[in-house]
Amino acid sequence: MYDKKTLIVIIILLVIFVPLAFIGTYRHFTNNEDIIGDDNPNHEFIYNDKVYFYYNNELLGTYDCSNCSNVVTTIDDTEYHTNYYRNGTDEFNPILSRTMAVFREGDKINFYAIGTNMTVQYDAIKNYNVANSNNLLMVQRDNLWQIIRVDSSGAINVLDGSYDYVAIPNHMENNILNSDYLITKSGDNWQIFDVNNNTNIITTNREIVDFNDYYYITYDNGYQLFDYNNVEVFANIVKNDIRILDNYVFLIRDNLLLVYENDSTNIFSNVTIPTYQIIDFSLNDTSIDIMIDGNLYQSIALG
User: Fold this and answer.
1) pTM, rounded to two decimals
2) Percentage helix, strand, coil, to 5, in the chain?
3) CA 158, CA 16: separation in Å to the nearest integer?
4) Do the Cβ atoms of 262 and 215 come closer than 8 Å?
5) What are the sequence ranges of the domains in the chain?
6) What architecture does CATH give domain 236-303?
7) Tens of each residue's pLDDT in the chain, 303 residues
8) Could you write out the three-class secondary structure of 182-239?
């Protein structure tokens, strides 16, 4: 059951989001040039104390505002040991659809319904500055995070639940961050949340760092690897760090990287690596790329 504050937020969001399909259709068949004067020569998002809502170069509306600015996304993952994506460089697109825009006004972030002038405000927004497979945005208000999904038609959906922390793990596949499963924290409990089925697949009081279909990584005075029967795996191997990507497990011991396939205790590959600040792994159709401090260090061939 939801607490009173969460229910109020959900009701407000439904009031705003549900009518938007009709509004978007109506505005599509309305000649906006007859309604909205366009005095913004370069089609900037914010110009001359006004926010301009362009969608496919069509001006859908404006918003008078002397203290508005573009959204700057948040990274709060450094407070934990989460394996999160650190190399995002995409600028945040403030126009989510024909009917929804996002911008900062003062110290609040506005989700603004174009055409209705209705607004839902948040304190922070997170998306790792990279595309993810479910078009998710994580938004925070009063220190609680919610998850918003923008579907292919531009509709905005709010997923169930509010969390103390939420993260998309660093599962980069063909330059898209896989967001089918998330890491969430509620009180002392950590969960792996299944986005598409709206359910938790594991709950533990250990900090969850990463996971795949076979195992999940925790941190409790060091890194541990468990299967989904909560049996620790590779417990007798000395390791400084553990990473997971798709069907592969990476154990790091000083300057040695050991790569295992999920269904085998035999080493798939071993690589000597230099001292690093950040190590990441990216999977493509032919190889696993080892990224050290943002640069490609080596590729491990597949197949």
Assistant:
1) 0.80
2) 10, 45, 45
3) 11
4) yes
5) 1-159, 236-303
6) Beta Barrel (2.40)
7) 445 555 554 545 555 554 443 333 333 333 344 456 789 999 999 999 999 999 999 999 999 999 999 999 999 999 999 999 988 999 999 999 988 999 999 999 999 999 888 999 999 999 999 999 999 999 999 999 999 998 766 667 888 889 999 999 998 888 899 999 999 999 999 999 999 998 999 999 999 999 988 899 999 999 999 999 999 998 888 899 999 888 889 999 989 999 998 767 778 899 999 999 888 888 888 899 999 998 999 999 987
8) EEEEECCEEEEEECCCCEEEEEECCEEEEECCCEEEEECCCEEEEECCCCEECCCCCC
Cβ atoms of residues 109 and 119 within 8 Å: no
Q: Which amino acid is at 34?
A: D
Closest CA to 24 of 80, 86, 72, 95: 95
Token pair for 33: 């040039």
Chain length of the chain: 303
Residue found under tokens 């998850």: 147
